[in-house]
Amino acid sequence: MPLLTIGSAAYDTLETPYGFRDRSLGGSGVYASFAASFFTESRLIGVVGGDWKPEYSGLLRSRGVDLDGLETRLEAKTTYWSGRYFDDMNARETLCFEGNVMSETYIPIVPESYKTTPYVFLGNGSPLTDMALLDAIEKPKLVVADTMDFYINGMRNELLALLQRVDGLILNDSESELLTGRRDVLTAARLIMDMGPRFVVIKRGAYGAMYISSDATYLVPAFPTQKVVDPTGAGDAFAGAMMGSLAESGDLSPESVKSALLYATVVASLNIEGFALERFQYVTRADVDKRAAEFRKMLVS
Ligand code: AMP
Fold first, then answer.
1. Residue of higher predicted confidence among 90 and 170
2. Around 98, how many Cα atoms within 13 Å sit in the side-chain half-sphere?
3. Of 5, 6, 8, 173, best ligand 1 pocket probe by most atoms within 8 Å of the beta carbon
4. What is the dihedral of CA 121, 188, 196, 209, to 10 degrees?
5. Is residue 90 scored above 80 in pLDDT?
6. Distance between CA 91 and CA 143 in Å, rounded?
7. CA 232, CA 89: separation in Å to the nearest integer?
8. Are 100 and 78 in contact (CB under 8 A)?
9. Which amino acids bring their CB within 6 angstroms of ligand 1?
10. In angstroms, rounded to a whole number, what is the distance separating the alpha carbons of residues 156 and 152?
11. What is the CATH number of domain 3-166+235-298?
12. Where are the domains of the chain?
């Protein structure tokens, strides 16, 4: 079943121990919709400025991402983010974030053909934008949101209103602590479920991820990637792949959720082996399935 992703389409300047890239293709919506395209029909809603490189749209389209919902505002500038990673790659510093064309009050234009999309992923972006999108979509089957420190700190009330309208929330452990004040992930997840979502997925970097709902808890370790070149977009690729896989299976059975978590982990690991989408853009479903089979063999069952 099709998946609609909303999120940033951005230029990213990246600094890691392996090198530097200036204004590469990036953005939460880009990583997530690309990762979802391995599994299902993937639609992206977002906005870029007049400085957007058409070849970036070409790259996404060539991999099957539907960009009918990617608006261009010629007079504005594309979203820009720059970050620097430290030696162990687990910590990063945001050097600059300029929302530019994707302001906190950006109202998306939703193409008619997208309005009945059953699966919706709200990638990192303003909760006000996400709520405007939900207003335009007719009875989606599953809505999952991502969030980050920028919105937890800056738009907390709007985020809390959004949480009333989603089925699931996906975030990392430092974000769950920021949102709830609790470091213990199980307690944090339960507090988040009190805010609205029926399930929470907490990403824990090199420690893997956890899915928590009122009746189940699942754990998945991280895939042991040998060379992490650029972790940017790992969280978005994880979430996009998870949603793509759930949309592909069409239900939330324990098997589907576990398989989605496994695929999400594998796709995130493939994303971080190169800068931006430089390597990721050539990954195929066959590569994903090959690594998923390797990963399954490693897991204790
Ligand atoms: P991740 O590494 O999964 O946290 O995602 C990093 C991506 O998120 C980069 O490609 C950035 O362009 C994008 N990004 C960073 N800050 C924001 C923000 N405040 N809103 C939306 N997207 C962002």
1. 170
2. 14
3. 8
4. 30
5. no
6. 29
7. 10
8. yes
9. 8, 10, 12, 26-28, 81, 97, 124-125, 150, 232-236
10. 5
11. 3.40.1190.20
12. 3-166+235-298
**pLDDT band at residue 205, thresholds of 50, 70 and 90?**
confident
Mean per-residue pLDDT over the chain, rounded: 97
What single string gives the DSSP state of each residue in 76-108? S--EEEEEEE-TTSS-EEEEEEE-TTS-TT---
Q: Report which DSSP code applies to 282.
A: G
| 287 CA to centre of ligand 1 in angstroms | 25
The residue among 68, 37, 44 whose CA lies nearest residue 243 is 37
Candidate from 86-95, 187-196, 214-223, 287-296 with smallest mean pLDDT = 86-95
pTM of the model: 0.97
Instruction: Give me 267's structure tokens.
Output: 């796709």
Look at ligand 1, atom 13, and give the residue with the nearest C-alpha.
27
Ligand 1 nearest atom to the CA of residue 97, by list position = 16
The residue whose CA has the least distance to atom 1 of ligand 1 is 233
Phi, psi at 209, each rounded to 5°:
-145, 160
Residue type at position 83: G
Confidence of residue 89 (pLDDT cuts 50, 70, 90): confident
Mean pLDDT for 111-137 is 97
Separation between Cα atoms, residue 118 and residue 244, nearest integer Å: 12
CB 16 within 8 A of CB 227: no
- Separation between Cα atoms, residue 99 and residue 194, nearest integer Å: 30
pLDDT of residue 58: 98
